[in-house]
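Hi P.,

Sorry for the delay on this. The queue was packed all week, but I finally got your sequence through. Input first:
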Amino acid sequence: MKNKPVLYTLLLLLTCGVFSCTSAESDAAETMAQQEHEKKILVFSKTTGFRHKSIPAGKAALLQLGKEHKVAVDTTENAAVFTADSLAQYAVVVFLNTTKDVLDAEQQAAFEKYIQSGGGFAGVHAATDTEFNWPWYNQLVGAYFANHPEIQAAAIDVLDKNHPSTTHLPDRWEREDEWYNFKSMNPDVHVLANLDEKSYKGGENGEQHPIAWYHEFDGGRAFYTALGHTEESYREEAFLQHLWGGIKYAMGE
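Then the structure:
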């Protein structure tokens, strides 16, 4: 009888220990599950040519989209992150209105290996006004910028609505932006949307004027949209869904 208090104390300690361990194991398992499922993207917006005023709005929009979709987002203009070890942590690298020469030879090689290892790329607007002396990049992004008329409203014919970037769009999408004319176009991309040159002034690509596309390339996945020049674009729900859908494709979803 005298040992009962000791026995109760031992039982209480054992019970608390079991519950404590169970709780700790549960927390650890939950943390591991979150780490396994959380993807991470890099938003790169270095410019050495024209600099778009909409870049801050684009960064802010992608950070918010990342929160909404539980995807971690890093933003940088420092090309030093283009190393094999650094890029390996990202599911997608987004070129947000980059211009001209933004990577040196070693950084280019690291990015090529990243794509060849199954990485994803998403190019926004001026991503085609980038790296004109890098043929591999030309094939990855899908075209090079040639010129553009003044900002104006135009109509886009959505050709493929079975893609996460276009499922929500109307068959004919009318909006205002800066409409690029292209050169050195990769014929192997899958065109999602075509710009109707009859709906605005200054088009030079004719009836076949792709404005958004995707393709598998050199082991990875690439998406490009020529939209996104204006600050207003990054407050436009249809465009933001379009952009995030392209990033989802590049992530392999």
